[in-house]
Design a protein that fits this description.
The protein is α/β, with parallel strands linked by helices. It has two domains: about 200 residues, Response regulator (Rossmann fold, 3-Layer(aba) Sandwich); about 130 residues, Rossmann fold. It contains 13 helices and 15 strands. It starts with a helix and ends with a strand.
């Protein structure tokens, strides 16, 4: 009898141990915390550090790695997540090239990825690889729309372009080239520069030589300040428009007085206090941003932190449906999670309202963009 009790106790202990060792939901996070895109990555890392470690009764484990704004390191990180950590989903990275570099591994392992890039090519078209890729930053076309409307309203007829010589810059250039005829814009000059460049004098002198009514600067983080400062230093008096990649306080600090007067298309969360109460992004941003800024400071506000947290919001919304079909750590769960993400409908988040579908893995509309002007080192909503 005593032996039977002992065996029963051992069996219960073993069962208890099995329950305790059940795999949590694992989320891999790869971000450019260092390198040229560090402005994007640091804010994203900080935001995700505030994510809860439970969904219902399920534990959540976040595994965060720096990819240094390098596509090779991004792929190494993603392979580690898939092969060693057996993650259920991946958040990141933050640049178009890095997101595109993740496609092969994500598709082969059937692991859903939510990236934070504005470039349309990251998720479009939704083919066999991109069916595993989603993103939280609005497409370039959405961000560009309000800028073109501003140009029309202010009589801009000729425009110069200077942007990154990568997928992000190319995406905006394609958008400008496609829309220029309908907007009655003449593209006077096109110049490019690399994220790691420290001087753009040659490109700016070429832009100045054609004297366009406005210049569109397409960049992100601190490298985006280079063309603006160079244009101002050489006395350019036309309008300067900026892509959404500048949406951080770092851009204002580094750019200083040179960026005053510049106009940008950004996500609404950057100026959430200035939004009307009816704006669908205001309530979720008001719930998150004070908590974020209490810990990390108002000087660290950006579009990128909320967009990264939106990736978690989308996952959190999809996880219950996936749990009904499979257990974390299994292919069944990952596939069900991908399907549930794709079914996201009218999810009010900080970047906008997400409506995802089998043909749209970005899922945002015009509610994801506003126009702001930099006035005395502050972002001011243009109403």
């Amino acid at each position: 009898m005593r032996n039977a009790i002992m065996i029963g106790a051992v069996a219960l202990a073993a069962l208890g141990g099995t329950v305790a060792r059940a795999q949590p939901i694992k989320i891999g996070i790869t971000l450019p915390v260092t390198g040229p895109a560090a402005t994007l990555g640091i804010g994203s890392r900080n935001a995700l550090s505030l994510a809860p470690n439970k969904v219902g009764e399920e534990d959540v484990q976040f595994i965060m790695l720096d990819d240094g704004t390098d596509t090779t390191r991004t792929v190494v990180n993603v392979r580690k997540f898939v092969d060693e950590e057996h993650v259920d989903a991946i958040i990141g990275s933050a640049t178009a090239q890095q997101c595109l570099a993740e496609l092969d591994v994500a598709a082969a392992s059937k692991t859903p990825v939510i990236c934070n890039s504005a470039t349309k090519a990251v998720t479009d078209p939704v083919d066999n690889k991109r069916r595993w890729m989603f993103k939280t930053a609005a497409n370039d076309a959405i961000m560009a729309g309000p800028l073109f409307a501003h140009m029309q309203a202010h009589g801009v007829k000729t425009i110069g372009f200077i942007g990154f010589d990568d997928a992000y810059g190319e995406g905006w250039l394609k958008e400008l080239t496609a829309r220029a005829p309908a907007e009655k814009l003449t593209i006077a000059d096109v110049e490019r520069y690399a994220r790691r460049d420290v001087d753009v004098t040659g490109q700016v002198l070429k832009l100045m030589s054609v004297n366009p009514d406005a210049v569109l600067v397409v960049g992100s983080g601190s490298p985006a300040t280079l063309p603006v400062a160079a244009l101002r230093d050489r006395g350019y008096r036309g309008k300067i428009y900026l892509s959404s990649g500048v949406a951080s306080m770092d851009f204002l600090r580094i750019g200083g007085r040179a960026v005053n007067g510049a106009i940008a298309g950004v996500g609404p969360n950057l100026v959430w206090e200035q939004l009307p109460d009816a704006n669908p992004t205001k309530a979720p941003t008001a719930a998150f941003m004070p908590r974020y800024e209490e810990k990390f400071g108002k000087e660290n506000r950006s579009n990128f932190a909320p967009q990264a947290y939106d990736a978690w919001t989308i996952l959190q919304n999809a996880i219950p449906a996936a749990l009904a079909k499979g257990k974390p750590g299994t292919e069944i769960f990952r596939v069900a999670l991908r399907d549930a993400i794709e079914a996201t409908h009218e999810l009010h988040a900080m970047a906008g309202v997400f409506n995802l579908s089998p043909t749209d893995h970005a899922g945002l509309d015009d509610r994801a963009a506003v126009v702001v002007q930099i006035e005395n080192g502050k972002w001011v909503l243009v109403k």
